[in-house]
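WARN  no MSA supplied for this record, continuing single-sequence
INFO  ligand: manganese (II) ion
INFO  echoing inputs
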Amino acid sequence: MEVTASRESVVGDLTVRRALPRAGRRTIGAWCFADHMGPATVTADRGIDVGPHPHCGLHTVTWLVAGEVLHRDSLGTEQTIAPGQLNLMTAGRGVSHSEEATGRYAGDLHGIQLWVAQPEATRHGPPAFEHHAHLPRVEVPGALGTVLLGSFAGATSPARTDTPIVGTDLVLHRTTVVPVDRRFEHGLVVLDGAVRVDSEVLATGHLGYLQPGRDELRIESDQPARVLLVGGEPFESPILMSWNFVARTREEIDAAHASWNDDDGRFGRVDSRLTRIPAPTPVWAASPARGEP
Ligand code: MN
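INFO  complex generated
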C-alpha cells in the first residue's frame, strides 16, 4: 500500500483534508477527488456555505458522518442530506450547485465529498441528480459496510455508475477482511480512528492506495474506526482537472471557464442566497509552462 498525507485546504468556511488528487496519483478507478471535511461545529445559518459554482464531466458524491447540508442545483433540486444518505449529482456537459447550512441544524459537521470522472460515453450528456435516503448495508466479520456506489460483499447500491467502480463506508469494530474486485485499484480514506493495511498505519488525513490484483483486503484495527473504501477499473484515459471542471483538453477547460464567467446559460442558475463563485484563471493562462493545477 502506498500512503500519502492529505493537503489541508479551505472550502467555504471549512477546513478540509484533500486526499485526492495527489501528485503522481490523479485517479483511483474513476474517482478523481476526495475532500474530507470536519468534524467542525456549525450553526443553523453558518456552516459549509459553498456558493453556486459549476461542474462538468464528473459526478459529485456527498456522504456525511455527522450533520446536515442543504444541496441546491441548477436542475431546481433542493435536497437536505443527513448521515447514511447519498447525494449523487451528475454534471455531464454542465450543472451548477451550492452546498448550504440547512437553517435549522446546529452541531457537528463531518463528511466527505468526492468526484467521479465521467467516461467519454457520458461526459457530454445531460446533468442529473439522485438522492438515496436508504442504501444497502452489509455485515462482514468485524465491520458494517454501507454501499454508496457499485457492489460490495453481495450488496449493490441503486445509485448510478457510468464506469465499474465501488464506494463503501466501513465501520470497523475490530480487524476485518473484506472481499474486493481483483480488476479494481483501491483507495482508503480514514474518516475516524486509524487502521493498518499491509503493516502500514493509515490515520485520518491519509490516503492509502492499492494496486489491482487482490481478492480480499485485510484492514486491521484494535479500536473502532471508520474508513471509506473507493475503487474501480483503472480509468479509460488521463483526465485534465482544473478548478471544478474535469475534461480532456485545455480548450475544453477554457470554454467551461468562459461559459461560467459569462453566465451564458450552459451551467444554468442556482436559486441561492450565497454569492456565485467566479472561475479563477486556468494555471496555463497564468503560467503557460505548466499544464495542470
Ligand atoms: Mn461542487
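Residues 53, 55, 60, 97, 244 surround manganese (II) ion (CB under 6 Å).
INFO  checksum written, moving to next record
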